[in-house]
Design brief:
The chain is an alpha+beta fold and 660 residues long. The chain is built from 26 helices and nine strands. Helix 11 packs across helix 15.
Length: 660
C-alpha cells in the first residue's frame, strides 16, 4: 500500500514539473472527473477546477462555486485557419481569447474578472488534485462507471481505492513506450492509457453505419463546430465509438485506415428553440450564443449581436471560405438593420457631442453663498467648517459618493440622457471620442475636490494641534472613501491634496500628527500612499475586489485621453500605457457592476442639502473664485489660486530662512 502511494506521489510530481503551458502540469486540472464528483470538491465561493467535458469529448469545462451554488461553464474553442498549412486554436468564455487554458485561468484569477455577465461568477481559489491524471483516467474513463456519492477525501487524497489492484494502477509495459500495440485491442478501449506519447490516433472501426444512422437529422440548422454549445440536445447523436476504437500512439504501427471527415466551418449563431426545452445538465446556459430579442437601444442590440456574429464572420483571416455556396448567408445591410429596428420599435439616434460644460456656476442657486459672493468668503468658510465638524467621516464620504455618481453618470442616468450619449454609463462615454467634454469636466471636479481639502487645512489658523486634528480627520475620510464607500475617484483627489507642496511643507503639522494621532500617520504612510501608487499604475484590478468599488480610479484614463503623458518613453512607460488601456476596457465592461455597487452603498441614505451642496462643483467654482471669476479661463484661475495657497501656507509656517 505504501509503495503504491509513493508511486502515485512520484507520478504526480513528474506531471507538475512539466511546462506551465501544458494543461496537465497544473493541479487544478482534474481530467475526466465527472460533474457530480467535481461539485463535491467545491466548498466555498470562488473555488474552481477544470475538467474534461463528458458530453463533448475534447472540450473543457470550468466548474466553480458562486453564491453557494455550483456552476459549470463550457470553455469555447475557436479555430482560426488563416492559411491551409496552419491552424490555431483559441479558448474563451465570452470576450477574452487565449492560446491555452492555463493563460485563461491566470487572467480570470489574477484580474478577478467575471466569468459571465449573467451569473457574475468570479474564481479565486483552485481545487488541486493529489493524484496523477493516470489514476483519474483509470477510475472515471470507464463508461460503465456510476457515481456512488464520493467524498472529498476519496478524490483529493492519493491512495489505492477499494477494488483496484496494484497491477491495474501500474503502467502496462505492453501498451506504453515504443512497443507495438496488441492487435487484439483494435476496436476495444483498454482500461489504462500511457501518458508517454501525445500522438494518440484512433484505430479503425470499419462497421457499416445502419440506415437509421445514415438518415439521422443534424442536431441544428447550422452545423456545430469547435466548442459551441449543443443547440438541440434532444436530437439523437452518433456514438463517438462508431468513429473508431481505442487510441493508439504514433509508434504503434497501425493507424486509422480512413481519414476522419473534414469538419464544416460554419459556427452556430443562435438558438431557435426556447431555453425551457433544453436540458439543463447537457447545456451550459450561461454561454449559449443567443442574441436577445429585446434591447432598449440600437447600441445595446448591436453590441450583443456583434459579440456573437464575430465568431461566424467568414473571412480569410478567421474561419476560411465556406466549402459550399448553399451554406453562405449574405451580410445584412445597414438600411435593412435600421428598417428592422424601426419595425421592432427601436430607432437609431445619433449620439450628441457635448461642447459646453455641464457646470453652470452663473445660474447656480446656492444655500450657502450670496448671489454676488467674493472669492473665499469668510462667512461661507466659517459655515463650512461647522458643517464638516458636525458630520462624521462616513456621512461625508457618502455625500461625496452621491455627487460623484451624478457627475460621472454612474447612477441616475435617464433613458433620454443615455440615448443622447449613445451608451448607458459615463464610464463608457469617457472611453469614446465624443466624451471629450465629460473628461474635461471630471478633471475640473477632481482638482476642485483637492483644492477644497487644501483650503480646509490652510484655513485652520489656530494652533498646530488644531491643524493636526484637521489633518487626522481628512486621513480618516480617505480611509472611508477607500474601504467603506469605494469611491476611488474622490479618494485619489484627497490623496492629491495631501501631497500638494503647500501641505507637504508643513513640518510642524505633520510632526504633531505623528505625536497626537499616530495611527493616522502610520495609515497614511503604510496603507494609503502605497495603495495610491498601485492605483496610478493601474494595478487595482488585481488588488481590489470588484464588489468593493463604486467609482473606479478613472484619473489616469481621462488624463491620457486628454493628451497628458503619464509615462516616460521607456519600456516601463509602454507597459503603463497598456495597463491604462486595459483598465479602460475593464471599467467600461463592468459599468453596470459599479452602478449596482453604488446603489447598494446609497440605499436608504438621506443626504443633508447643505453638506451635499458643499461638494457640488459649481459651489466650489463660486467659493474659490467668486461669482465673477468662476467662468474665467481655467489656466488663469488655477495659476492665481496656487499663488494664494502658497501665501496661506507661508503664513502658517514660515520658512526657516525667512524667520532668521
Amino acid at each position: 500500500m505504501e509503495s503504491m502511494k509513493e508511486q502515485l506521489k512520484k507520478e504526480l510530481e513528474e506531471e507538475l514539473k512539466l511546462s506551465s503551458e501544458e494543461l496537465r502540469s497544473h493541479a487544478w486540472y482534474h481530467g475526466p472527473l465527472p460533474r457530480k464528483e467535481a461539485e463535491v470538491l467545491l466548498q466555498f465561493d470562488g473555488h474552481f477546477l477544470i475538467r474534461d467535458s463528458r458530453s463533448s469529448p475534447g472540450d473543457y469545462v470550468l466548474t466553480c462555486q458562486f453564491r453557494e451554488k455550483p456552476l459549470h461553464f463550457k470553455i469555447i474553442r475557436v479555430l482560426l485557419r488563416p492559411k491551409k498549412e496552419y491552424s490555431r486554436t483559441l479558448f474563451q468564455f465570452e470576450q477574452e481569447q487565449f492560446d491555452n487554458i492555463p493563460a485563461l485561468v491566470r487572467f480570470y484569477v489574477g484580474n478577478r474578472k467575471l466569468i459571465s455577465e449573467e451569473t457574475e461568477a468570479v474564481i479565486t481559489d483552485p481545487i488541486t488534485r493529489a493524484v496523477p491524471l493516470r489514476w483519474l483516467e483509470e477510475r472515471y474513463r470507464n463508461s460503465s462507471y456510476t457515481s456512488t456519492e464520493p467524498t472529498r477525501k476519496q478524490i483529493l487524497r492519493a491512495g489505492t481505492p477499494g477494488g483496484t489492484s496494484d497491477s491495474a494502477l501500474l503502467r502496462s509495459k505492453e501498451k506504453s513506450g515504443s512497443h507495438p500495440a496488441n492487435l487484439d485491442t483494435v476496436g476495444k478501449r483498454p482500461p489504462l492509457q500511457s501518458a508517454q506519447s501525445d500522438s494518440n490516433l484512433l484505430t479503425g472501426n470499419l462497421d457499416t453505419p445502419t440506415a437509421e444512422e445514415q438518415t439521422a437529422p443534424p442536431p441544428s440548422p447550422l452545423f456545430r463546430t469547435g466548442s459551441d454549445p449543443l443547440l438541440r440536445p434532444n436530437t439523437s447523436k452518433h456514438n463517438i465509438c462508431s468513429e473508431g476504437g481505442a487510441p493508439l500512439r504514433g509508434s504503434d504501427g497501425q493507424l486509422h485506415s480512413k481519414a476522419p471527415p473534414k469538419p464544416l466551418r460554419v459556427p452556430s449563431l443562435m438558438l431557435t428553440e426556447p431555453l425551457e426545452n433544453v436540458e439543463t445538465e447537457r447545456t451550459y446556459c450561461e454561454l449559449i450564443p443567443k442574441v436577445p430579442t429585446s434591447a432598449w437601444s440600437y447600441v445595446d442590440r448591436l453590441r450583443t449581436e456583434e459579440k456573437w456574429k464575430s465568431r461566424a464572420r467568414v473571412t480569410e483571416t478567421t474561419f476560411g471560405f465556406l466549402d459550399t455556396e448553399s451554406s453562405y448567408v449574405p451580410p445584412t445591410s445597414c438600411s435593412q438593420v435600421s428598417e428592422d429596428l424601426k419595425n421592432d420599435g427601436h430607432e437609431f439616434v445619433r449620439p450628441q457631442i457635448e461642447t459646453v460644460s455641464s457646470f453652470k456656476p452663473k445660474s447656480f442657486k446656492s444655500l450657502l453663498l450670496s448671489p454676488e459672493n467674493k472669492p473665499l468668503d469668510s462667512g461661507a468658510l466659517t459655515v463650512l467648517k461647522d458643517i464638516f465638524t458636525q458630520s462624521d467621516c462616513r456621512t461625508t464620504a457618502l455625500h461625496i459618493l452621491q455627487e460623484d455618481c451624478k457627475v460621472i453618470r454612474v447612477c441616475g442616468v435617464s433613458p433620454e440622457q443615455q440615448m443622447m450619449m449613445g451608451v448607458t454609463s459615463g464610464l463608457e462615454l469617457i472611453t469614446l471620442p465624443h466624451g471629450h467634454q465629460l473628461r474635461k469636466d471630471l478633471l475640473e471636479r477632481h482638482h476642485l475636490i483637492a483644492l477644497g481639502i487644501v483650503v480646509d487645512i490652510l484655513g485652520c489658523t489656530g494652533t498646530v494641534a488644531e491643524r493636526a486634528a484637521t489633518l487626522h480627520k481628512i486621513i480618516e475620510l480617505a480611509l472611508e472613501l477607500k474601504a467603506s464607500v469605494g469611491d476611488l475617484f474622490a479618494f485619489s483627489a484627497v490623496m492629491k491634496a495631501l501631497e500638494f507642496p503647500q501641505i507637504a511643507r508643513l513640518e510642524q503639522t505633520w510632526t504633531a500628527l505623528r505625536q497626537h494621532h499616530t495611527d493616522s500617520a502610520i495609515a497614511f504612510q503604510k496603507q494609503l500612499k502605497p495603495f495610491m501608487k498601485t492605483l496610478n499604475e493601474c494595478k487595482e484590478n488585481a488588488t481590489v475586489p470588484l464588489g468593493d468599488v463604486s467609482v473606479p480610479h478613472i484619473l489616469p484614463l481621462i488624463s491620457v485621453m486628454e493628451g497628458t503623458e503619464l509615462w516616460d518613453h521607456t519600456e516601463e512607460g509602454c507597459e503603463l500605457l497598456l495597463r491604462i488601456l486595459e483598465s479602460a476596457r475593464f471599467m467600461a465592461g463592468n459599468a453596470r457592476v459599479y452602478q449596482r455597487n453604488a446603489e447598494e452603498k446609497l440605499a436608504g441614505f438621506e443626504p443633508s442639502p447643505q453638506l451635499l451642496e458643499a461638494f457640488r462643483t459649481e459651489f466650489a467654482l463660486r467659493l474659490f473664485w467668486g461669482s465673477k471669476g468662476a467662468e474665467a479661463p481655467q489656466s488663469e484661475r488655477y495659476k492665481k489660486f496656487n499663488q494664494v495657497l502658497t501665501v496661506l501656507s507661508q503664513k502658517l509656517e514660515p520658512d526657516k530662512r525667512l524667520r532668521r
